[in-house]
Design brief:
This protein has helices at residues 28-43, 64-82; strands at 10-13, 19-25, 53-61, 84-97, 100-111, 125-126, 132-135, 141-148. By secondary structure, the chain is α+β, with helices and mostly antiparallel strands. The strands form 2 sheets. Strands 1, 2, 6, 7 and 8 form a 5-stranded antiparallel β-sheet that branches.
Length: 149
């Protein structure tokens, strides 16, 4: 039946010291959204977070891999500086520009509440190690990220 592709959104991969994951999407935008969800689920169970506050994010970068790293790094920055933990992500667009790539996305979450949010692993930074952005042969996209924990 058409439209019943039950593909996983992301998976965690083995890495000796840090957290490594691969996120999937039928579009590049969806793969970036799922990468953000995977990164936040390394730290906390996002199903316990309410989408109360919105942050809009606009980024430009010279290449698509750096755009992914900067998207995740910006979310991590907002988590650390604003004290907001995210649970929902929507990428409005990723497009090629004359200088590289740009994205416009949104993230929803709520202020950190240690009485409700049980943190597991601390993500310190998004690394460039084994960073990948690929189009699948059968359609769709996958991205791979290693975060420093």
């Amino acid at each position: 039946m058409q439209g019943e592709r039950n593909e996983k959104k992301y998976e965690y991969l083995y890495h000796i010291a840090d957290a490594k994951f691969r996120a999937y999407g039928s579009t590049m935008e969806e793969a970036f959204e799922n990468a953000a969800m995977a990164m936040f689920n390394v730290m906390v169970n996002t199903s316990k977070i309410e989408a109360k506050e919105l942050r809009k994010i606009e980024i430009t970068s010279p290449d698509i891999k750096m755009l992914l790293a900067e998207w995740l790094s910006e979310l991590l920055y907002l988590f650390e500086v604003d004290g907001i933990v995210f649970c929902e992500f929507r990428m409005e667009r990723i497009e090629k520009t004359g200088e590289g790539f740009s994205l416009t996305g949104k993230a929803w979450g709520e202020p950190i509440d240690l009485s409700r949010h049980m943190f597991d692993t601390q993500v310190k930074a998004v690394t460039l190690h084994e960073l990948e952005v690929q189009e699948k042969e059968d359609g769709g996209f996958w991205v791979q990220v290693v975060v420093d924990t």
